[in-house]
Amino acid sequence: MYAYDEIDRTLINERVTEFRDQVKRRLSGELSEDEFKMLRLQNGVYLQLHAYMFRIAIPYGTLSSKQLRRLAHVARRYDRGYGHFTTRQNIQFNWIKLAELPDAMADLAEVGIHAMQTSGNNTRNVTSDQWAGVAPGEIEDPRIWSELLRQYTTLHPEFSFLPRKFKFAITASAHDRAAIKVHDVGLRLHKNEHGETGFEVLVGGGLGRTPFLGKSIKPFVHGHDLLSYVEAILRVYNQYGRRDNIYKARIKILVHELGAEKFAAEVEEEWRQMDKSALTLDDAAIEEIRSRFSYPAYETLPPMPEQLKKAAHDPQFEAWRKNSVFPHKVPGYAIVTLSLKPVGGPPGDATADQMDTVADLADKYSFGEIRVGHEQNLALPHVAKRDLPALWRALDGAGLATPNVNLITDIIACPGLDYCSLANARSIPIAQELTRRFANHDTANLIGRLHVNISGCINACGHHHVGHIGILGVEKNGEEFYQITIGGRADEHAELGNLIGPAVPYADVADVVEDIVEAYLALRARPDELFVDTVKRLGVEPFRERVYATR
Amino acid sequence: MTSPLEQKKIRITGPSVVTANRTWDGVVIWRTASKGWSPELSDAAIVRTSDEARALLAESVADDVGAVGAYIAPVEVRDGGAVAPGNLREHIRSEGLTIGVAMPAQRQDHVRI
Lengths: 551, 113
Hints:
Oligomer: heterodimer
Number of strands of chain A: 21
Radius of gyration of chain B: 17 Å
Largest sheet of chain A: 6 strands, mixed
Low-confidence stretches of chain A: none
Helix content of chain B: 10-25%
Shape of chain B: globular
Largest sheet of chain B: 5 strands, antiparallel
Strand content of chain B: 15-25%
């Protein structure tokens, strides 16, 4: 966990005081909506279909049990008893009252949580691997660098009025769980031949209306130079990024239009001539940040404790363990993913009671720490293997042990037309139906790893472009239709999915997914060939034929 | 959502209302004939011509303290005078989330695998 210092606390508290005054002036009529809108957006407050929505940052997906309990309190006291974890490691409350928002913000500020830069044309929440610091083989904890970036970019005047929003993601593992190739800037931490820490820098990734994968513009930027290099990128973007057309304003369009090579040269030139003295990170500065992260005092534990051997006889426990428990860098410990994808439930939602339960279990079994992943699940990052059976029983009692992590029912979905004022079509009911269709665990297990991502509009908050099966809601003559893509992926081998054919109506979506899955089962070369690999090998055509032969 | 400015150009093709969200709590509201707001669609002032719609929108937008994001939305007026939302978006705003509502036309032989 990272411990905020006095500067952080002052900043957050001052923001609450400022926003309280702004809300007061809005409600009295002193501020018009036009004047207020930008102020509320700078604090993560959107207006959605039914109410205001409050988006809260969870930097690099790390939460303490105390913070999660406070989120539960906000859900209960100010909202309708639940929250929605997003694809950018944030949490959203959907029913919050503007008049009560300052109180909710003040309650959150007491535990070091805020909503700054969770909306608006600025640098957004810095995201990272939800297994940061505990993943086996990780080069080093990427949250140190995430936190440096967070501090550097928060309220930075030069980055507060960018042409468009700007998102960073950082990974330090060979397997990319942070989807860095679909971010404005993706940073892959690695070491050079001298053993020094640095980053491969990818720029111009993003989804939405015009999806692109990020291009590598520099193979190694020394960690000492991270901030100055990032500033050079943002300066080039600020200078050349389009402000005349919102659809062409993201940095991905600039990189595409200039070409990655030319863009890289512009950044390099800016970086060469800029005064870097104030931005160069010395070892002491990095160590200062590192020292504010606390790590558990792990015990020396056996890799296969008796409790685990005994529990292995229970098929339900085993089903959960195989899908939810992952190796940890410390022997005797495990990372446990908590599925927020129950059959028939809205993906990513957690009730206040569930949040409290997870906080209690984190205290009991995970050194008080919780992680949020961009797949809209939670994780307990430091669980002793001996505790897994007891943890499973407790999670099962709270509806948090659905054994479907990485399976077809572990669906990423945006809020869609049920909540969102931008959406054209619903996402959640599609996800709910798919989880019912594939509720049988043996069926889902037979299918194997398969990510279904659903977005209710072209803005792609559900990351449909990089779903193994991607589903995009569109509107045609007032009716909901859905475009289906296959073959996308968000990891280190990221690819954008390909459209299989004409959009299908709402009622047909689950049938189409079943057809695609049936085709895959018939076509896969062997039982362990993943869906996405079968699509890669065979292309879209056999799936297209299967889906549209009778439609 | 279409901005009020753009809606000046819009010609309505059927019965319409003006809807918005209440400023202090965000609740969905409709403009009434008595120049107020109601959280009930059944209380909404129904307009049938583009001129009426523009006038209703103009007076609604003028109430910047009470409501936010006012716009014209279609409705259906059924036999007997009952008013219903004119599209899915407005149905969701009026009736609430569709989550939990069964998908229509589910295939009977599903889970075939």
